[in-house]
Amino acid sequence: MKKDHPVSVPLRQVTVTDSFWGGYMELARTSIIPYQWEALNDRIPDAEPSHCIHNFRVAAGEEEGSFEGCVFQDSDLAKWLEGAAYSLSTHPDEKLEKEVDSVIELIEKAQQPDGYLDTYYILNGLDQRWSNIRDHHEMYCAGHMLEAAVAYYQATGKDRLLQVMIRVVEHIASVFGPEEGKKKAYPGHEELELALVRLYGITHDPAHLALAKFFIDERGQYPLYFEEEAKRLGPSYWDNGPLKWMYYQAGKPVREQKDAEGHAVRAMYLYSGMASVARESGDETLADACRTLWESVTRRRMYITGAVGSSEYGEAFTYDYDLPNDTVYGETCAAIGLAMFARRMLELEPKGEYADVMEKALYNGVISGLSLSGDRFFYVNPLEVVPEACEKDYLRRHVKPKRQKWFGCACCPPNLARVTASIGWYLYTQREDTLFVNLYAASECHVALGGVPVTVTMKGNYPWGGEISLCVSCETAAQGTIALRIPGWCRNWKLTRSGKPAEFTMQNGYAYLSGTWNDGDTLELSLDMPVERMEANPLVREDMGKQAVMRGPLVYCLEEIDNGACLHEILLPKEAKFTTHREDALLGGVVVIESDGLRLQDNGNSLYRFASEKQWKPVSLHWVPYYAWNNRGVGEMTVWVRSE
């Protein structure tokens, strides 16, 4: 890794104290993780069974039975373990740690003598393993379990699961690689690539980084491995549609890919792995490919909420500016993957646009997948919902008007567990003696500047308010730089240092403040946070003539419970006035927006009629944060509203 690349400040060096993200971390500890432990053990009444623990018990010889669930079922347990590890990093919990240790013992018992670990093939025939790399997710499951092992080692110092997974990696390296006799293949569902880089960060074994780089460099090379595999397995399901091998991001080498294509979650995990490998290896051609794909995603194929993947077919990207609101897929895992990609781009280079997108995804497209109680989940995150259409229109069958207890394919819930428990990992990055503040959440960050231990304490009421203060604590004076991201959504802001106008330089969206830092020095950042009316690029056909409402990093929406049914009849007047106020008893405590509006008045019963001047009735519109919709019952919802 080059010295000028930033690194994320480790989770154990950051204590999140604010009511928003601190609240989500507490929710993860007290609700999300315990609930999901019950789900993984098939103890949630009237919920689809998980089978995860069952499969491992059978594979370990502790129960009789057969494999049940999806071929990638092991990954749900792996993500839960990772989330539990992050929670233990910040909140030691003897009961949870014992549960994790018991699961690790089970996993170790299931592992095969040669290091192989995947319950699907352990129970269905080891002679068939590595026979369907395209579709059967063995390396995907290994990647998630490897991430869990790294996280648990960093949280507790215990290396039992880490050693299990190092043996798995050694087995995989004996099967795949550039050497003669090995398979020139790569994961059908990407994930192992980024996990191997995390392992390399602990072991510093160049073989671990080399394996990650092999998987990335080999993807899309001809002869195409999946094409050769198809001669034996039969054609891919995607062969007869528009996606073909790009469903797997495998139709061309990664450095030749100019647009985000195919399955959105696979794409985000691939791009995250590419960015990590580029950083660690110094491969600038790979870094440039990441920048190209970043632009494709964020400038032409991303929703205002940070959701990505517009099509139910293939859970995939389609084409530039194709962003339908009611048939959107917007998988929760894809928004999480985008936040992961953004964080790794920040580790390549400190640019505010990466943190802007990371913030957008986390505050909107990620936590919209989670109920405020932590026990109900969205797989799909629409920007417009009519419950009757979800029930009666086959093309909208994937859109649910309420969050679910669990899913047969339950990748999203444990992904939410791991991201909410690790939010402190996204706040700060550091490059030598420069500390970058990427997200604004009340917290304490322990780092060194100029070799001197420093604690930076951040306070504020973000995202509800834009007043942020940072205080430096150190025993002796420290030399270095603190760089504050100025959010792209903010037009007016002010920065002072210990009560005086601050001297700073602006670069790529960050305000750099350098010099000597003494104990008690403060920075005060004031971000103007008015209500903003947003428009999409006119090439986004679905949003033409419509506007969305944002305040700070939050996207707002209209719900039927506040504004009545038939939200499509509402129009936002050109001169509409907006007011904001805090409602502590609503949706866990939020700032709501009130505005003028108009509603179409039409009592006619003709299906079609001569065009005439429409009649509009003034109404008051009540806007709530998008992430919190559907916590008060089932009803219509919309983000984009017709504008005058």
Describe this structure in words.
The structure is a single chain. By secondary structure, the protein is an alpha+beta fold. It contains 17 helices and 23 strands. The protein has helices spanning 21-40, 52-59, 74-90, 94-110, 119-124, 138-156, 160-175, 192-203, 206-218, 225-233, 264-281, 284-300, 332-348, 352-366, 387-392, 412-421, 560-563; strands at residues 7-8, 14-16, 384-385, 428-431, 434-437, 443-449, 452-460, 467-473, 478-485, 493-497, 500-501, 505-507, 510-517, 522-527, 531-534, 546-551, 554-559, 570-572, 578-583, 590-601, 615-625, 637-638, 641-643. A seven-stranded antiparallel β-sheet has the order 2-6-7-8-14-10-11. A six-stranded mixed β-sheet has the order 1-4-5-9-13-12, with helices on one face. Helix 2 crosses helix 4 (94-110) and helix 11 packs parallel to helix 13 (332-348). The mean pLDDT is 96.
Any idea what the radius of gyration is? Answer: 25 Å
Q: What profile does the largest beta sheet have?
A: 7 strands, antiparallel
Give the overall silhouette.
globular
How far is the first residue's CA from the last residue's CA?
A: 52 Å
Number of helices: 17
Number of strands: 23
Order of adjacent strands in the largest pleated sheet = 2-6-7-8-14-10-11
Average per-residue pLDDT, rounded, comes to 96
| Low-pLDDT residue spans | none
Structure classification: alpha+beta
Give helix % range: 25-40%
Proportion of residues in β-strands: 15-25%
